[in-house]
Amino acid sequence: MMKRIVNGLALVFLLGVSLAGAQEADQKREETRQWVAGLKFQTGEVSIGNGVAKANVPPAFKYLNPKDSSKYLELLGNPPSQVLGILFPAESDLLSSTSWFTVLEYAREGHVKDNDAAKIDYRELLADMQKGTKEQNEERAKAGYPKVELVGWASSPRYDASSHKLYWAKDLRFEGEAGDTLNYNIRMLGREGVLVANVVGGMEDLPAIEKATPEILAMLDFTQGNRYQDYNASTDHTAEYGIAGLIAGAAGLKIAAKAGIFALILKKAAALWKLIAVGGVALVSAFKKLFRRNAEGA
Predict the structure, then answer these.
(1) Whole-model pTM above 0.85?
(2) CA distance 262 to 173
(3) Residue 164: is its pLDDT beyond 90?
């Protein structure tokens, strides 16, 4: 009899804990909904990075300021970070797992010379990158991260020498996952750094992203004094890599080092998403897109 009473009390306690957890989750969901509903987006001309660059945001897009962008990324399971904002398609629902968006950053790591651009054999570069990725897999496994295969170009690199703008996309396959992952990168070269626009989305978003890329490239640019042509070889720092190095991921620690940071939070993702899921739709897929984009670095 005593054993049944103890078991009954234990069950009541567990049910109480479960109900308390459900109430807390409901409160978190409501707080998230209210926060998203209150966000103020911008269109038109927007200053980026304390005036280093600017965006002329057309009606087809909406820009979210750095503070709210950083909080949004934290809600997606990322550690605190400083970004220059996020560009969303105008119709995007920020709480939908089907949305894609573009995270803006600035890497002030030197002037990237583009005199190698016309000479790059992208098939050979891809082969080198695939070899490097394969060689790094043992270290990934030892660190507890899934192995990854660089399947190929999802979109072959394209560089416009007149505007000094570049974009490419990689098709990645992570161990244990059925589908492939999209890694879409847009870069704009400036006087002493690179404006980074990383598109977070899935392989199913590739056609929409490809269609939008020309518009994203057109709306972003450096300001007077920070443009590529404003470079002064006698006073400005020069990067130790060119276009090939930028594509291969040699663009310094500031961006590439994120691989370890974002990998650390993978195990916490499931619990977090239970708190911020809205309307019964879990955003795990959106988190995976964001995690894997950063897990591969620039």
Answers:
(1) no
(2) 17
(3) yes
